[in-house]
């Protein structure tokens, strides 16, 4: 009970500034904490995450709350009658739900500057963006409000905010974790996963979240592959390389420096080229626009003015994409997945920047990349999009940079090898290159 | 995308075809985003793929047990 009350106090103290939460489930949290306490008193196993406070991006169903998905439109929806499957799994593991978290409307953005619910602020500098679209999820962990959150990642929406807020985030293999009860965005690309302040916490939550779900059409029928027990295996047997070409040509020095620090700590100098990464990003862009626009077409027809302006016009354009563009992008994805998976025959882990820059200011519409002025929002995901497009697992690892804004790297493995990503993240943490300190208030 | 692709006209005609009203105040932005998507699509479409490459969007029939 004390843990839940302390978390509620932290949220009360900090969220007025950070704006991470769109709902606080205090009554439920105290009831769940009481249930954990009762289990302990009765000598029952309260679960591997007993008493751990957590919160979820507000696209996850939470029984009794309308699932906002960052929108005003969904606020009119009836309250969810059941929890999303991953929320149920965390509850079964003994974790305590504290509330729902802010995001870009319908997950279509990289900055969590939400016109309806306000911007989520970066705990390391409240004038700066938390990243998005799972900005509330990353900032709540970085600010020390809760130690564990859930988010979603279609093109980078776990990895971008993890990088900008300086926390660990796991985007698992496409199809690994069930999306049942998570409001969709792009069915072909949607992933869900956790944020935490350490690799151990990330792995523990991931282990609690695993499991086949026949009611998510893309959830793969995999056996439970525990990762907590793998963390101590180290990395001596792993073939690690740095992503070259595309991933080095458009990153600012701070992003390249973060990769270099990690590579140096791991003794890595070899480079690999991920084939056609720019085209993969383009194909992901087309599929995202088309599926997102199509999903929201009924509301776009009837009530376009109720969308966040930053989302609306992109969804409107996406609804008009010709079939050929979409289908070619899907066919290209098949080719790309085969090519990139082949790359992992000779490489276990690839290191790449997570974002091209550290957190931009809230409201900053443009940024400089390789000497060129570009739009901020679409370009924050240039390094994450080609990776989620291949469906590979990634741990976003925050690189320790005292006195500077955080920035993260992507630790990428072959599909279904989350264990390798987590082992490398743990190794970087062990040598002090990676860390996720709570931001000073 | 061809060089003479008129994006404004495409947006107007396709929106009409699918019954999607676009407010005149939103139309310039929509055209801008469509131009961005078109550029991305051109990058994808210029890449030759053999006919044997199928879409990554696959379909698995439901089993009766899933529905129960």
Q: What report would you give on this structure?
A:
The complex is a heterodimer of chains A (441) and B (68). Chain A is built from 15 helices and 17 strands. With 441 residues, chain A is an alpha+beta fold. Chain B has three helices and no strands. The longest helix of chain B is centred in the middle third of the chain and has 19 residues. At the A-B interface, helix 9, helix 10, helix 11 and helix 12 of A face helix 1 and helix 2 of B.
Q: What fraction of the residues of chain A are assigned to beta strands by DSSP? A: 15-25%
Described by the principal axes of the CA atoms, the overall outline of chain B is: flat
Tally the beta strands of chain A: 17
Separation of the first and last Cα atoms of chain B: 46 Å
Number of domains of chain A: 1
Q: Please report the number of helical segments of chain B.
A: 3
Q: Which CATH architecture of chain A?
A: Alpha-Beta Complex
| CATH fold title of chain A | Amidase signature (AS) enzymes
Largest sheet of chain B: none
Low-confidence stretches of chain A: none
Order of helices and strands of chain B: HHH
Major sheet attributes of chain A: 11 strands, mixed
Rg of chain B to the nearest angstrom? 18 Å
- The count of DSSP E runs of length 2 or more, i.e. the number of strands of chain B, is 0
Which strand-content bin applies to the residues of chain B? under 5%
Structural class of chain B, by secondary structure, is: mainly alpha
Share of helix of chain B, binned: 40-55%
Helix tally of chain A?
15
| Distance, first to last CA of chain A | 24 Å
The quaternary organization reads as: heterodimer
Helicity range of chain A: 25-40%
